[in-house]
Each structure stands twice: as C-alpha cells, then as structure tokens.
Amino acid sequence: MTHADLDLDDALIQAMQDELDRILMNEVCESLKVDKGLGQVSKKELDLECDKRKNSVLRILNTSVRTQRLYFVLRSIFMGLISALITFSAILYLGTINFIQAFFLGIFVFVFSLVFTRLFDEPIVSVSMKIIRFLEKHNRLRSIILKTF
C-alpha cells in the first residue's frame, strides 16, 4: 500500500495526522537517528527510513478508522433490522398502537437491540474485518460504502 492509497482526504485521518507527524518525528525518527548514528548512515537514508515508518503507522491508523466505521454501519443495520422486526411483530399482534404505546415500544426496542448487538459484538467485529479484507481488493466499492455511510 503506497502513500497515495491512504485516505488522506478523510477528515478523521487529517485531524490525527498533524499530531501523529509531530509524535513520530520526536519519538521514532529521533530514536532512529540515535540508534543508527549520524556518522554511519546518511541523512537521506534516515529520512527514508523515517518516512517508511510514518507510512506504516498511517496505514495502521487508516485500517483502524475503516474498521471502526464499518463496525458502526454494520451494528446500526443490525439494530435497525431487530427494531423493525420487533415493532412489526408488536403491531401485528396488537393490531394498532397509539402514540404512548409507540413511545414506550420505541424505547424498549432500542434498548433491546442495543443489548442484543452488544452480546454479538465479537461476530460483528469479525464480519467487519472480513469485509475490510474484501474491500481492500475493490477500491471503488470501498470508497462508496465508507464515504456514503
């Protein structure tokens, strides 16, 4: 993955990038210069190694952001489907509901779907990671999904 493959136009990544650059320059690059010694290795080689390490950290950050967003999308979809199913079942059973019943049903359905999706948190994360791996090969589809939702 090259520097151009990173979603540098992403607002979340841009917000973290300045702080990350400062930390990497102070911590990683300076320790690299001390470890390798300025006399043994040229400045150009040190800068290349520093850039390579910064790009590695940015790739990890980029993957983390994608996974978090996809997790949120998947969990929201599951919560919506569970809520719709419970609401549909309640209306089918009761026939009709008034505003007060709908209000309390909505609160119950939201809490139930939240708890239900938290119980199945590990499978949702697993599915998110599988989808991320699939989307690595399909840049256009990945872009549409992650930018639309």
Write the SSE topology.
Layout: H1 11-36, H2 43-94, H3 99-119, H4 121-136, H5 139-148
Rg over CA atoms, rounded to whole Å, is 23 Å
- Uncertain runs are 1-6
What is the H/E order?
HHHHH
Number of structurally distinct domains: 1
Keywords, separated by commas or semicolons:
149 residues, 5 helices, 84% helix, elongated
Q: What this model shows, in words?
A:
- With 149 residues, this protein is mainly α.
- Helix 1 packs antiparallel against helix 2 and helix 2 (43-94) packs across helix 3 (99-119).
- 84% of the residues lie in helices and 0% in strands.
- The chain has one domain (3-148).
Give a nutshell description of this structure:
This protein has 149 residues and is mainly α. It is 84% helix and 0% strand. The chain is elongated.
